[in-house]
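Task card 7
Instruction: Convert sequence to structure tokens.
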Amino acid sequence: MNTDLIFDDTEIAFSLKTDSELERAYFLFKMISIEPLVRIGTAATNFAIKAHLPIEGLIRSTVFDHFCGGVNEEDCLSVIDNMYYKGVSSVLDYSVEGKESEKEFDSAKDKILKIIDFANEIDAIPIAVFKPSGFGRFYLYEKISSGEALTENEEEEWSRVLERYDAVCKKAKANDVAVLIDAEESWMQDACDALITNLMIIYNTEKPIVYNTLQMYRHDRLAFLEKEHEKAKKGNYFLGFKLVRGAYMEKENDRAEEKDYKSPICESKFETDQNFNNGLYYMMDHLDCMSLFAGTHNEDSSYLLMNLMNEKKLLNNDPRIWFGQLYGMSDHISFNLANKGYNVAKYIPFGPVKDVMPYLIRRAEENTSVAGQTGRELALIKKEKNRRKQSL
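Output:
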């Protein structure tokens, strides 16, 4: 492992945070570290929103402002500018979830097209992103993934889903903006994978524009990556992949148990970590036709990727390699990497406060369940608070 432990430098990590923002971050992660409190808070927040109680101001000034850039693109501009000044790019993530109507899907597509226009004008936004379920009904993806035939109406509905994807990828190619397509639950992912591969064939002719996402807590994803590589070699197109560990573990395991099939999830965190790192090794060995977006909050995996780049004598800012973290988390990784000249992007969620709440609740639950994540955040914030006191 890299002996230069750059992620311990809290002065660089929190250089954009005022003392009051640092205190707020400490308070939030302290609350998130208490699992019963997260459960009670989640239930109370959901109830308050459904009952139309006036809590948006409280949410906005605490958890929303820490984990989100704003309610719309323009609202995010000051965050984007400040981070870019420190070398960290932004991926605007329209984090409105759970929509089901054609009108809402078209609205999400229009939002992504607007973000690509935005990205074309602002160097700080080199990448766009969207979720498959933002462009079409989950049920449709699930039905196609299971091999069931669609009805005539569903066929028409699916063709509109394809048109939304194509419109976004066409614009991304024209504007030279990479577009990352997130992964979701395994039982709808086969339909997404096939669709995204077809888009890569069309739009990844000179370099990767369209990126699929591999959730490496799935034990089959490395084999999938190898098969996609074989297809790309035969078809003479480029591959773009975002590697993540995954975000639906409990849901995946519960469904596998309920329906009595083998869970697609690795049996341990150690196995998941190995799978993720093996994905890094594989992609780094095939950079002639692949580009990598490493979405990770794991220090060891980040050091591993840095070391692989160093071994291959690559520049820190090699355009084929990006590191990514979520806004409001792991600033010690993002800003210290950027300070060393690596390509780093923060996912910046945005949207109306009540619509972004499912995203925020997932972030809180994820921080509670990931061993060591919240404790590490708290320890670093505490270290920086002490450093600032001593420097007075």
